[in-house]
Each structure stands twice: as C-alpha cells, then as structure tokens.
Write a structure and sequence with these properties.
Largest sheet of chain B: 2 strands, antiparallel
Strand order of the largest sheet of chain A: 1-2
Number of strands of chain B: 8
Number of helices of chain A: 9
Largest sheet of chain A: 2 strands, antiparallel
Structural class of chain B: mainly alpha
Shape of chain B: globular
Distance between the termini of chain A: 30 Å
Oligomer: heterodimer
Structural class of chain A: mainly alpha
Strand order of the largest sheet of chain B: 1-2
Strand content of chain A: 5-15%
Helix content of chain A: 40-55%
Chain lengths: 188, 660
C-alpha cells in the first residue's frame, strides 16, 4: 500500500484527463465489469468487480442507476473524493488478484488473456516486456477506450517504473495504472 | 368538487374551462379581433430528413475504427464490447452500416432495445440480467418488452406507446419469499408450496359444492350460510393463497382479478338468492356460480403455472412470453404500468392522478413542466384569475392529462365498475363524485375535460380523449412523442449531457416519422444507424456544450449557442432578424456584448446603441414566460411547450452567467 502515492503521482502525468472530464461521469462498476468481462473472462464466468469493494452495497456510491423521486436516474457518477477512493480500493483488489494469478488461479480468464498473463508473469524477462505482450495486456483491460497515444505513455511508464521489479508488483502496478486512467473510468 | 373545495386549481380550471367553451361554442366578438393562430403548427414541412448513410463521413484511422467498432458493439450488445470471439480483423474491413447490421442481428440486441425502452420510460436499471437470468424489474414494463420483441421481428416497435396490452410475468419464484411459513410448508419447494396453496383454495370451493351433492343435500339456508362464510373470510383465504407467491406475482394475479372475482361473484349470488324465503332459494344457481368461478380459477392458475421456472427460463427478449390474459376474469385490458410504476406513481385522494399525469407528460412528451406561462384564454372574460395564473402554468395540461387515469385506483387497478375508488393511500371516495372533477363544461362538445392540452387558448391544437386507449392513440399520433423518443435515443447513445442541435433532432425525427409510417422497427434501427455515424458519437471526449451535428444544409457560423439556435430560428427569426421590420432585435446572430461580459444578440436602442446582454436576456425571459398575450412571444403564434421551456431554461442560465 505504501506504493500508492507513487502510482498516483505517476498517474497524474500519465493520463491527462480528457478535456471535458469535469462533465464526464463514471461509467459505474456494472458497466465496467461487463466491458472487462467481454475482453478477459470466459462467457460463463464474468468478472464482478463489486466483489472487490471494501464492503457490500457500496457500489451505489460509484455510479449506478437507482430510484430517484418517481423515476430512475444515474447517481453518484460525478467523480468526488469518496467514490474516487472507493474505486481505487476496488481496482487495487482486482489488480492484486490478477497479479496473484501468476502463482495460483484467482480469476476465471479466457484463453487469450490467460496466455498474455502467462507471458507477463515472467516479468522482468524480455519475453514479458515484448511490445506484443504489452499491447495485448493493454487491450485486454482497456480495449480501445483510449487513443493509441495513451498506450505509448503507459508502456514507457511501466517499463521505466517497474523495469526491474518482481512480476507481482509490476503486474499489480500496471493494472492499476490502466484502470485508473480516465478513459477506462469515465463515460464518453 | 367535494374533496377539493378550497383547492385553487379546481376553481381555476372551472373558470378557464368556461372561457374555453366560450371560444368553441359561439364566436365571441372580442375573439374575432384577435389574430388567429397559424393553422395548427405543422412542423416538419420544411424539415429535411437525414440520409441513412452519411456521405461526408470522414474515414477513421485503423485504431480509431476499432474504437468505434468496440463502442458500437457495447451499445448494440447490451454492454458487451469486443471479445476474443469477435474477428476484429474481419470487422475492421466492413463498412459502418455493415457492422451495425451485424450487431443488430445478435440476440443481445434485444436486451439493448429493452434497456433503451426502460430508459425511455424512466426506469433504466444497471443490469438487465443477474447471473444469466433476467432481473425481476426487467419484466416490470410490459410495453417495453412488447416493443423490444416486436423490433426483433420487424413488427410494431411503437408498442412502447401502448398503455394497455400484453403482460410478461417473470418466472415464478424459486424460493418462497414468506419468512414465517408453518413447519409443514417450510419443508416444501416453492413449486410444491404453490401447488398446495392453489389446491387448498380450489378445495375450499369444491367443499362448498359437495354440500349440495348426494342424496341428502344441505338445506338452502344452511348452504347459504356456508357460502356466506367463505365470502366473509375473503382476506384470510386470500392471505393463505398468497403465502406461496411473491409481491410481484400477487400483483399479477390480482391484476387478473383473482381471487377478488370469486368473492364478488359468490357474494352477488348470495345477495340475490339467500334473502328469499327458503323454499324459493335457487340453490342450483348458487352451485352454478361456484362451478363457474372454480373453472375460472383453474384456468387462471394454469396460466400462472405456465411460468414455473422449470418450464420457463427465457435467456433472450425473444423468448419472453406473455401470460394468457384470456384465462383471467379481468384479462381483456391489461394496463402497462407494472408493480414498480404502480408503487412509484401512487395516487391519493388529494393528488388526483397528477403524479401519473406529470409522468406521462415527461416520459412520452418530453415535457418537464417548467412553468413558462400559457396562452390566457379567459382574458376577455374578466381577467379574473390573477394570482392563480402561476398555478395554471402547469395545471392547464396536468389536470386534463390526469383525467385519463380517472378509472384506475390503487396500483393502476381497474375501478371502472366499482362504486368507490380506492387510492394507494387506501383512502376511498365515491367514484362518480371523484370523476366529476373532469366533467367537461356544458356546450364544449365533449363529455370529459380530458386530453393532451397544448394550449388552453386554442383548443383545436389539443387532443382530447376519454380512456387509456385514447391516450395511447394520442401518443401514437403526437409528433411530440416521436420527437421525444428520438431525443431520448440520442441521450441514450450519446450521453445525457451531450447537447444535440434541435435542427438535427428534428431531421432525425422527420426521417423516423417517414420510415415509421411503413415500419417502425426499421425506422428505429435506422435512427440508431444514423446516430452512430454522427460526429458526436465519433468524437472522443466531446464537449457536452457543443453541437457536432446539424440538419442537412445548416451552416453553424455566427449562430447563437446551439442549445437554442434552432429553437430561435424556428419560432422567432421570421420576425426578429436583421432584414425584418423588427431590426432592433436580431435573434439569428450572436455577438460580443458591449459591456465585455460574454456574448449576446444584436439588440439596439432607438439611438442605435447596443443593449447590455442582461437586459436583452431579461426581456426574452419575460416575453417567453408571460401569460399576457400582448407581451407573450412569439407574437400570436403557437410555440411548442417543450421548446419554450428549453429556451426559458437556457436564458436563465445565461442570465446567471452575465450577472456574476
């Protein structure tokens, strides 16, 4: 956990928020889970990120359709200190699970993402740092949500910060960096 | 009037209604002097439809095309973007319309349409499905389901506008919801418990019948007492039956008239027969009634049990099936408002269905009831209603809309044949007295003051009706409803905060209307195809304040801000542009304000000096929201309430900006 401040500082550089981030809302955990599941999970075992929330019922606080007056409205989607912290904790939990998967299975993953992770687990080997592996990992988590230029920034950040770190720490860090990217988080 | 005596609204309504009748019945001389409105605004004549395939659609880079494909996949496959099963290489080579068609053929597209329909109705949820099965609320909006199903077979998508129709119950519960079940019941599965509870209910009826069977039938009066006992125990017997069902299931069963119908029928025969001298009691008739209700109960529960989860577990919208309404005593007209709407849109003895009316105006007509005045119809009568006008600004349309629901009691249950109407707060009232609120004034040519009222002054613009069937028809025919549907579709696809030019929206609506006159499902799919080709959809991080797409042939330079530019063009510019007689105020342009505070419309004093933005804006706000016809703009012309509200809200926002 002591790493957090470093990652956050790095993120500030890494991901210049989209120009109109002020108006943009979080997608909400259920939308993100569905997106992520399509990319990295097998059809029969979708990923449910709310599992990683610090407590039950908190997913209401990070963007959700809920009753409001007589109708439903998307609520708590506006980024604020509370939901930002909650999302970070949730994603940290997921990133840790993903990294731990190098040692023992933690998550149901589809074949193609499993192969990518397997290659990354050999970090800091050259095989793991291969451009193709990093691209596949980026696309697995982020999809095409971000412009191509964002990938290059992330890759350089990962190679620089985690170049010589052990696999678990590196994978956790690079996953979290990806998930806290506004292009991943925000409705656009 | 009894209950609301003292309520200003009713008094105002009566007063104004009198004014309206004066207008329609005998041409009041004062009125002849008033310029008549233009023939009921026929928007659309000058509006150009949009091409289906954009000719000027700039090609995307390889990466950005994949982004577009992924985004489109998510949209059309209920949140599921590209996965390793998709051949992205192959997809990238297809044209955008080809890709869209392919995604629309995916069974998940049905979920997208259902999700959008629920959004349109104001009840979107995060996940239609939980662990592969549809969430209970996904079943709660029958018109959303009918319409989504229709779309998949190119049927009538506009069933979304039907307020009566089929009903689609969820599979019956797998675990009984009641917590304090008896020890015997607790051992049963949900399905066994249902069988038991239904069996007991039927046995109760059968036991009655057997009293009159065999060589020694029970004497008439004693038999009457036994039947009367059952009627008296209505609530105990119902509760016992319902212990096997969830709230949603009970709601469905009761909507169909079970078990209420049984007790009503029995009570009626008992009343008819058992008051007579014993020798004249027609016990055969009582027995026949018992037989009839028993048969009805059997057919109703057969229909319910067709939803046993072992037999029914839909995995797509296409597989959702309606309940057999004909098996129910009250199956003919099944209201489209489900349990959640029933609860959220509760009526009370003082609310007079206004909550429901506000809901319909907002969801089907995109009218948010921002008070922006009204065309005062009673001005020439006495100018009497001064302080009440502020109420009337909403209630002139709210109250007549509420009248469509006058026969529906608690949870939208049908009360048209009961002497009293029972409200959701469980208060009740004599139904005739209650309904008199909506009686039309004599001479109006209508029985009811019920309808979609666009203008209290110009009744020929309004659509009057009597019942929910009429309201559905009015929604189907109203241009406002189709435009509202297109507006919500852009919100759903582009994000709620994205500003969309009104002219673009009108063109989109025009295309939709033209195509929907042949096939509304094709029309909706085409609208979706048009929207994924917009620049708004294809721009990363679009600025929510900016418009990216315009009606064909529109040049956006020098235009006022896009949220209102089109509204001004449509309603004001014919009189207020540089060329015309009113060249002091030009609502077609947008220039720097002389006081340096932002931008404003060219607006000159008699001495040719530019007026500060705040004054111009204040005048516009006043001109748009005043009920005084001498002041109200557009001068002697109708303007849609939706556009008036939008313009008014924008002016308020601009005013706040220049003032600080």
């Amino acid at each position: 956990m002591a790493r957090f401040p470093i990652i956050v500082a790095a993120l500030a550089l890494l991901a210049a928020p989209p120009a109109h981030a002020a108006a943009a809302q979080f997608k909400g955990l259920s939308v993100i889970s569905k997106e992520l599941s399509a990319r990295i999970a097998p059809e029969e075992g979708p990923i449910e990120l709310d599992r990683y929330m610090p407590a039950d019922g908190l997913d209401d606080l990070v963007g959700t359709w809920a009753a409001f007056g007589t109708e439903h409205k998307f609520q708590n989607g506006q980024p604020n200190a509370v939901n930002m912290v909650l999302l970070r904790l949730t994603f940290a939990g997921f990133a840790q699970s993903l990294a731990q998967s190098c040692k023992s299975p933690q998550l149901l993953l589809n074949d193609s993402f499993f192969d990518t992770l397997e290659a990354l687990c050999t970090w800091p080997s050259d095989e793991a740092k291969n451009e193709q592996v990093l691209t596949a990992f980026w696309l697995g988590i982020m999809g095409y949500n971000a412009p191509e230029s964002e990938f290059a920034v992330w890759r350089d950040f990962v190679l620089g910060t985690y170049g010589e770190k052990p696999a678990l720490e590196a994978i956790e860090g690079m996953t979290l960096a990806l998930m806290l990217n506004p292009y991943f988080l925000l409705e656009q | 009037m009894r209950i609301l005596a003292g309520c200003a609204i009713i008094a105002v309504t009566a007063l104004v209604a009198a004014g309206v009748s004066a207008l329609t019945s005998n041409a009041a001389p004062e009125m002849l002097a008033q310029p008549r409105p233009q023939p009921a605004a026929k928007p659309g004549d000058a509006i150009q439809p949009l091409p289906l395939i954009r000719a000027d659609d700039a090609p995307l880079s390889a990466w950005e095309k994949r982004w577009w494909i992924d985004k489109t996949a998510r949209l059309f496959r209920a949140g599921q973007g590209l996965s390793p099963q998709d051949d992205i290489e192959r997809l990238s080579k297809l044209s955008k319309p080809e890709i869209v068609r392919e995604f629309m053929d995916d069974p998940r597209f049905g979920d997208t349409v259902l999700d959008f329909n629920m959004y349109f109705l104001g009840f979107k949820i995060d996940d239609l499905k939980e662990d592969g099965a549809y969430a209970p609320s996904a079943y709660d909006f029958p018109n959303a389901i009918s319409s989504a199903k229709a779309l998949l077979t190119n049927g009538d998508y506009l069933k979304i506008f039907d307020l009566e129709g089929d009903y689609y119950p969820a599979p019956l519960n797998v675990t009984p919801s009641e917590e304090d079940l008896g020890p015997e019941d607790a051992k049963l599965t949900a399905s066994q418990l249902r069988e038991k509870a239904i069996g007991e209910f039927q046995a109760r009826l059968k036991a009655l019948r057997t009293l009159r069977e065999g060589p020694n039938p029970m004497p008439a009066y004693a038999f009457c007492d036994k039947v009367g006992e059952v009627v008296d125990q209505q609530s105990e017997i119902s509760a016992k039956l319902f212990r096997a069902f969830t709230d949603a299931e009970i709601f469905t069963i009761m909507r169909g008239g079970i078990p209420e119908f049984v007790f009503t029928a029995l009570e009626k025969t008992v009343d008819d027969e058992c008051e007579k001298p014993e020798a004249q009691v027609d016990t055969q008739r009582v027995v026949e009634t018992i037989n009839t209700v028993s048969t009805q109960v059997k057919s109703a529960f057969d229909a319910v049990l067709a939803f046993e989860p072992t037999k029914y577990e839909p995995s797509s919208v296409a597989e959702m099936k309606p309940i057999d309404r004909s098996a129910f005593p009250e199956g003919k007209k099944w209201v489209a408002f489900g349990l959640e709407q029933g609860t959220a849109l509760a009526n009370s003895s003082t609310n007079y269905n206004r909550k429901r009316a506000a809901y319909v105006l907002k969801r089907f007509f995109c009218d948010d009831l921002t008070p922006v005045g009204f065309e005062d119809p009673a001005e020439h009568v006495s100018g009497a209603h001064g302080s009440q006008t502020s109420c009337y600004a909403c209630h002139y349309k709210l109250d007549p809309m509420a009248g469509f629901f006058r026969n529906l009691g608690a949870l939208f249950g049908d009360a048209s044949s009961t002497p009293d109407i029972v409200f959701d707060d469980l208060a009740s009232m004599d139904r005739k007295t209650y309904q008199a609120t909506w009686s039309a004034p004599p001479g109006s040519g209508r029985a009811w003051n019920v309808g979609y009222v666009r203008s209290p002054r110009w009744p020929e613009q309004n659509s009057y009706g009597e019942n929910l069937g009429d309201l559905s028809k009015i929604i189907h025919e109203a241009p406002e409803a189709k435009r509202c549907l297109m507006k919500r579709l852009t919100e759903y696809m582009l994000g709620e905060s994205q500003t969309v030019d009104g002219g673009y929206l009108d063109s989109l609506t025009k295309s939709f209307e033209q195509e929907a006159s042949e096939n509304s499902s094709v029309a909706l799919k085409n609208a979706m195809l048009r929207i994924v080709q917009t620049d708004s959809f294809q721009t990363r991080n679009p600025d929510p304040q900016q418009c990216y797409d315009y009606a064909p042939g529109t040049r956006p330079e020098n235009r006022p801000p896009c949220r209102v530019a089109y509204i001004l063009e449509k309603n004001c510019v014919s009189c207020h542009s540089g060329k015309d007689f009113l060249n002091t105020l030009d609502l077609s342009k947008w220039i720097a304000s002389p006081d340096g505070k932002g931008k404003t419309f060219p607006h000159l004093t008699t001495k040719n000096a530019q007026i500060p933005a705040s004054q111009t804006l204040e005048q516009i706000a006043n001109r748009v929201s005043s009920s005084d016809l001498k002041i109200r703009m557009p001068k002697n012309k109708p303007m849609s309430s939706q556009e008036r509200q939008e313009l008014f809200l924008w002016v308020q926002k601009e005013l706040a900006k220049v003032k600080d």
